[in-house]
Amino acid sequence: MTKSIGIVETRGLAISIQIADAMLKGAAIRLLRQETIDLALVTIAIEGDTEAIREAIEIGTKMAKAANQWIASTTILRPEDAVNGLVMEIAKKPT
What we know:
Oligomer: single chain
Distance between the termini: 29 Å
């Protein structure tokens, strides 16, 4: 079964670390990557089964919005191989 992918974008590194931690504790997901751009924009990419991704994105989005640091979030359910490959390549880039 193809896994689903979730992405949460926030303002600020500290809140993104808290969000990643909460998502990992709240749902059976795997952290693919946490990409930081000048400490102001942080993107968290996760992978897991569809329900776990939905739960994790809900957790992350609520936390980011509560802190007024939410930019965007999305869920890609069972992505096509090309999209999955793209995300996996991004996840392999060194930080």
